[in-house]
Amino acid sequence: MQAEPKRRSHFIPRTRDGWIATGAFIGLFLLAMPPVTHLVLNRTDPWILGLPFIYASLLIIYTLLILVLVWALRRGV
Amino acid sequence: METWVVATGLIFVYLLITLVLGVVANRMLTVDMEDFLLYGRKAGFVVLYLTVVASFHSVFAFLGSSGFFYTHGVGFWVAGTWTLLVGAITYVIGTRIWALGKAFGYMTPADMLADFYESETVRVVVAVVSVVFTILYIQAQAQGLGYIINVASDGRIGIELGTLILLTVAATYLMAGGLRAVYWTDVLQGIWMYAAVWVGALFLAYELFGGPLELWRAVLEARPDLLSLPGPNGFFTPGIWIGMTITLSFGIILQPHMMIRYYTAVDAKTLKLLGATTPIYLMTLFIPAALIGMGGAIVMPGLEGPAADRIFPELLFMYAPPWLTGMILAGATAAAMSTLDSILHANMTVLTRDIYQRYIRPEESQAHYVWVGRAIILLLLVVGYYMSVLTLDFLVVLVTLSGAGALQLLPAILGVCFPGGRTLTRAGVVSGIAAGLVGLYVTLVVAPHPLGLHGAIWALLLNATVAVTVSAFTEPPSAETIERVHGELERFVYGTEE
Question: Which of A46-60, B95-109, B303-317, B368-382 has the lowest mean pLDDT?
Fold first, then answer.
């Protein structure tokens, strides 16, 4: 079996901006995943801007995730 | 004028516009496979944006999502998670696929995987998985189209005839203008379907409840069970939430009709902008769907099973003026056709490029392959029509599997697109996909969702385990190929060669 060329992993960010974007996206994404969704967000009160808490909080998280992607784009990540 | 006349008339006006776009696209076509199959690899941001979102959101997003909110409540807001992942996948993986396609002339997913893993077996397996699992979508979209025109005409046009008319229109503009026609019609379809859902939902919210916020209050008073997880029927468990997130993001993006779109971008910057902004459209389309579904659960209760998917047109026919109903049903037609034409095109591309050109007639002219592609579209039209009118038991089983089928390509694609660590081998990739498909059948059909975790996730875990294990004991791709492909990615992503 021949030896494989060794190369630094592309799964791990190599810049500070890369770490920030990856960490922020994963961190926020986990807020929209169980168990947070089913244990923490799973209620209607308090209502936010006229919307039930579970719906509004997820909408806020989704919006922040889009902002992370836009930030990464602007920083050239 | 009666509602059905206006609704049916507007759908036919819409169909006429798509045919005109197909003819105009035909005038600009050069006899070249890259032009016919890949838009000449020069799709700009606006066209690419609207074709990606229109192809991603099918008739399910237009009708089925409202049905999901109607039946299972706020849990379907999980949809936001997979739309966000689609953006991230495009940003991170899509750009790499684009770079490799541009560097090495790939046209299909199988092109890339067969080249890296140095295996014709990988090419055939990927091509077969691509076609088998997406051709089933033709059935779903075609049935949806037949249903929409049947509803719009108040039963005067039968579902089978409606399916045939709309399939024929999609195939006609695709044969005329190739992917350019698909992209141009997708621009129209993407705008129309988005406007239709929002306008329809806001109209109904104000007409029936006095506004969207009042609608939410009414849901709390009348159906508080719709505002909690896992929902009235206990559907949205944590395992299903995670499973739908993974399956409906990676599982759809890895289907050929979506992956081929990455090859068509004019540059990587366009794709990154696409990744950062597509979730805006994809996610916000589910906001009006929630209003329609949960508002419908209050004013029109009692629809069960597949009947719940009819809630949007049922509300329109009861409460909206004819012109608005017609505009919105034309939007539903757009949602189905934009996905249908993309799948027809992708299957044609895979069969022409990966099978016909590779194994049957490898040395023919570009014009020859373009005409073969057109003939394959006709064949797919016939197959799609018969699949949509003959609902056979085995097809029902296959449709159950289809959403998760392309997900089984994920380990192989990550192996190509992300250097580092041990490289997967051709034997590992093929055995992983085979194990994943068997796993899908068991965990989605025989014993659905073991331990509450979505079957597609079990199958993916099995696939990855088998792929890594077999790869540890078998021959990897040659060092030259790994260096060529991964070196290209190193230069593309980091601008350096180590």
Answer: B303-317
Return the bridge partners of A3, or none: none
* C-alpha–C-alpha distance, residues B417 and B97, integer Å: 7
Q: Give me the pLDDT at residue B144, please.
A: 80
User: Which of B112-121, B123-132, B278-287, B326-335 shows the lowest mean pLDDT across its residues?
Assistant: B326-335
Interface test with A, best of B81, B84, B227, B287 (most A CBs within 10 A): B84
Tokens of B73: 């409540």
Q: CA-to-CA distance for B270 and B281, rounded, in angstroms?
A: 16
Cβ separation B91–A1 shorter than 8 A: no
pLDDT tens sequence across A30-61:
999 999 999 999 999 999 999 999 999 999 99
**Taking a C-beta distance cutoff of 8 angstroms, is the pair B74, A42 a contact?**
no
Yes or no, beta carbons of A52 and B280 under 8 Å apart: no
Determine contact, residues B331/B192, Cβ cutoff 8 Å: yes
Give B224's contacts in chain A (Cβ within 8 Å). 44
Q: How far is B221 from chain A (nearest CA, A)?
A: 12
Query: pLDDT value at position A1?
Result: 47
CB–CB contact A38 B230 (8 Å): yes
A24 CB neighbours in chain B (<8 A) are none
**ipTM of predicted assembly, 2 dp:** 0.93
Question: What residues are paired with B265 via a beta bridge?
Answer: B43
CA pair distance B494, B498, nearest whole angstrom: 10
Measured CA angle at B298 (ends A49, B59), to 5 deg? 85
Of the candidates B84, B238, B476, the beta carbon closest to that of A38 is on B238
Residues 6+ apart with CB under 8 A from B494: A14
Among all residues of chain B, which has the CA nearest to that of A29?
B81
Listing DSSP states for B255-294 in one string gives: SHHHHHHHHTBS-HHHHHHHHHHHHHHHHHTHHHHHHHHH
From A75's Cα to the closest Cα of chain B, the distance in A is: 12
Please determine, for residue B399, whether its predicted confidence score (pLDDT) is greater than 80: no
Residues of A in contact with B83 (CB under 8 A): 62
Contact state of B229 with A54 under an 8 Å Cβ cutoff: yes
- Residue B416 to chain A, least CA–CA distance (Å): 11
pLDDT, average across residues B53-69: 85
* Mean predicted lDDT score pLDDT of chain B: 90
Which residues are CB-neighbours of B409 under 8 A, at least 6 positions away? B109, B113, B126, B129, B254, B433
Chain A residue with Cα closest to B214: A50
Cβ–Cβ below 8 Å for B420 and A59? no
Output the CA–CA distances (angstroms, integers) from residue B159 to B27, B50, B147, B156, B396, in the order listed.
33, 28, 5, 9, 18
Look up tokens 């909408």; give the residue: A59
Contact B479 A70 (CB under 8 A): no
